[in-house]
Amino acid sequence: MTDQATSQPPISQSTVYGYPRQGEDRELKRAVEGYWAGGTAEDLQSVARHLRQQRLTVLRNAGIDEVPVNDFSLYDHVLDMAVMLGAIPERHRQAVPVTDTPTSKLDRYFAMARGTADVAPMEMTKWFDTNYHYLVPELRESTEFELDASKPLEELAEARELGLRARPVILGPISFLLLSKAASGARQGFEPLSLVDRLAPKYGELLQLLHDAGAGWVQLDEPVLVTDQSPQVLAQVRDVYAALAAEQARPKIVVASYFERLGDALDVLAKSPVEGLAIDFTGPAAQNLTDLAAIGGIPGKRLIAGVIDGRNVWLADLQTALSALVTLLALADRVDVSASCSLLHVPLDVRLEPDLDPQVAAWLSFARQKLDEIVTLTRGVSGKAAIAEELESNGALRVIRSTSPLVRDEAVRARATAVGADDLRRHSPYAQRAEQQRRRLGLPTLPTTTIGSYPQTADIRKARAGLRKGTVTPEQYAETMREEIRKVIGLQEEIGLDVLVHGEPERNDMVQYFAEQLNGYVATVNGWVQSYGSRYVRPPIILGDVSRRQPMTVEWGKYAQSLTSRPVKGMLTGPVTMLAWSFVRDDQPQSETARQVGLALREEVLDLESAGIGVIQVDEPALRETLPLRKESRPSYLRWAVDSFLLATAGVRDQTQIHTHMCYADFEDILGAIVELDADVISLEAARSQMEIVDELASAQYPNEVGPGVWDIHSPRVPSAAELTERLASAVAKFPSDRLWANPDCGLKTRGYGEVRETLANLVAAAQKVRAGGQ
Ligand SMILES: Nc1nc2c(c(=O)[nH]1)N[C@@H](CNc1ccc(C(=O)N[C@@H](CCC(=O)N[C@@H](CCC(=O)N[C@@H](CCC(=O)O)C(=O)O)C(=O)O)C(=O)O)cc1)CN2
Ligand code: MET
Ligand SMILES: [Zn+2]
What kind and span of H or E run contains 217? Predict the structure, then answer.
């Protein structure tokens, strides 16, 4: 490549698909929760407007040539899309009639997201293999779409007022339909995709409105195209984009995909009459580069090349990214530079991390730093010399990281290498273990338990904030936590639960809490990433080889057990979840890291056992979500996932009962792996899916014990004893009752004590009733 004269227009432009929404101080969370607590719509809208302006200014000042709009959301962008298309479930229409006031529109929006006292919210589920949750639109054969384009139009106008070139980002029609579900009461066998012909004209109207409002380009996101799709679905993709492209007055269309390779969908999109494609070239999607070359590229089209990893936090390898861009130049009419996906999935800015070791901070790139990487690469496309300095310092930092003692720990590596097949097997088969556990624990049939956490009250969080600020001493903090544990143990005894928990008050988060205590991890103080709605997490960063410094949970567990004669369940987060909800290393296979975490947890499990804890739960809620999007990659993932769990848990004696917990439905794809985990007891989400999982486990002849969650803890509703009895009875009808447990769906940390006390009492009553043979 040769240097271009500076007078020539730049070959490439820089852009992104989305930017974090919350603001530097999570202003959005406070504004939204403030509105829910009785604040005004004006206050909420003004904070939101200010944040949008701030984001656009940041993008502009960073040098981003074309900014995204409509990527902002008060709650979730799929919910926004459902509202934009008028796909509003009947129950929310009726519960919150929309009048002329702006408040009613907002109230209905939040009713769909969170439910009301009378109506259930829309279902929430994971956004592909990320830890972000979206709301699942509900459609039926009678759904009539009705366009309300006010949101993208307003956001477009805001950007144009700032003098910016803006590209509205809209969830595409195929993804919208495939991410939706049949509403309850829809015709048997109804498939949302069957509405595509009714939906497409609404997208046509939208395109026209955006065009009239001055949009030169629009981005239609079709991430479902990176999952396995049938030829029939791909034919629909072809037809719908042919129809949209035939619209008279419209912006140019770029179809975006991310997270995996496009596979067969690549050719379909390449042949479609849309003007551009945005493609992910990072991680498992790197294959797109070869695939694109193999089909001869997309001559005549714009390519937005996602060469910066939008889901991880490591400094990019600029040299490699630049080489990819140069290769791509020959495969498209024009190549623009971007991150692989919306920057929604990474924290805002490394500069908001004052406590981070500066050396480590220099290896990281959060959303704001990724903008710089994108802009640098964009300049580099015109001539490598223009970014020679950046390439050199980037290369140097990457070398320093790869050879840093913070990264490699030979002792850990030696222990990981020494792991043998025996370490991955319990001493005896389940039947023998169950016998010994029965004798030791003396539990009734249908034992009752909870999943671990009890309400994280404001007082608990205040104490922790005080500890951080130094206004609360470690001793005072520990006493506050012990007080909370006493309260939680007392409550459970009073209610009459069989297997108790300590309540997890000392944990800020089930992953971050452990990350803060393990070697090889670093935690952030401001690295918030939206999980759902107004809830955020701070995923820790796995930097180097992982090992345990000292026992992490044993003191709390021992204390809780000392307060009661009933068994107290020890509570740990499993290796897969410790990876899935963190930013992982990009310099070694995940299987390696998982094995190291498995070894660290194994030590903790054995220490808990020695401390007299007879029941130990190792949570793996992320096991399903981490399943690779493409089926071909699944077996190898499941192998290391199961092995790391076994490594953590299989060292205990027969009479120690191992539990695990998963709370995201859709277990069909991993039933085999669930069996292989060989946990004595597994608790699962079941209430929201009408206990279907029990049928599945029964037909898979699940050999160990199961606690299908009978209480959907995601909703503030208190289920009655009768309702819980019915759910339990339905489980008993399908699965051997001597291997069933009674428990909620998930932890209770987001619930209030009022609901918890009432529902758990109902749960105990229901279990008693079903034990006695009642209905
Ligand atoms: N990592 C992870 N991913 C997950 C889950 C999970 O539990 N963990 N569960 C599912 C998602 N569910 C979730 C449920 C709840 C929250 C949640 O409640 N988040 C809290 C933050 C939790 C936290 O980190 N709390 C810290 C810090 C709290 C905080 O914001 N403190 C204030 C001060 C608070 C005060 O003075 O009262 C501050 O630092 O500014 C603590 O307790 O110590 C929030 O958004 O508000 C997140 C996800 C799937 N993915
Ligand atoms: C998201 S799974 C949560 C499991 C954890 N033990 C809790 O009860 O909160
Ligand atoms: Zn859970």
Answer: strand 217-221
Task: Give dist(CA 663, CA 712) in Å, integer.
Answer: 10
747 alpha carbon – ligand 3 mean position (Å): 6
Q: Classify residue 660: in a domain, yes or no.
A: yes
How many residues does the structure list for the chain?
A: 775
**Cβ atoms 179, 221 nearer than 8 A:** no
Does residue 117 surpass a pLDDT of 90?
no
Ligand 1 contact via 510 beta carbon (within 6 Å): yes
CA of 768 from ligand 1 middle (Å) equals 35
Residue with tokens 């409002």: 213
Closest among 67, 52, 61 to 14, alpha carbons compared: 67
Report the C-alpha gap between 581 and 131 in whole angstroms.
7
Question: How far is it, in rounded angstroms, from Cα 575 to Cα 572?
Answer: 10
Residue 247 tokens, joined: 């619209």
Kindly list the distances between the CA atom of residue 53 and the CA atoms of 17, 21, 583, in Å, as whole numbers in the listed order: 16, 11, 29
Domain count, the chain: 1
Residues 6+ away with beta carbon under 8 Å from 667: 624, 674, 684, 693, 696
| 141 lies in some domain | no
Establish whether 50 is a catalytic residue: no
Q: How far apart are CA 146 and CA 763, in angstroms?
A: 43
Tokens at residue 773, please?
Answer: 């043979």
Predicted TM-score (pTM) of the model is 0.96
Distance CA 384, CA 399 (A): 20
Residue 1 has pLDDT above 60, yes or no: no
Specify which residues 127 forms β-bridges with.
none
- Does the residue 469 lie in any domain? yes
Q: pLDDT tens, 190-213?
A: 999 999 999 999 999 999 999 999
Tokens of 558: 């021992």
What's the 595 CA to ligand 3 centre distance in angstroms?
23
* pLDDT, mean of residues 740-747: 97
Residues 497 and 503: their CA atoms lie apart, in Å, by 13
pLDDT tens digits, 748-769: 999 999 999 999 999 999 999 9
Q: What is the pLDDT of residue 774?
A: 64
Q: Which two tokens stand for residue 662?
A: 């998963």
Does the CB atom of residue 282 touch ligand 1 within 6 A? no
* 682 domain residue, yes or no: yes
Domain CATH for 686 = 3.20.20.210
351 pocket-lining for ligand 1 (C-beta < 6 Å): no
**Among the listed residues 755, 767, 761, 762, the one whose alpha carbon sits nearest the alpha carbon of residue 728:** 767
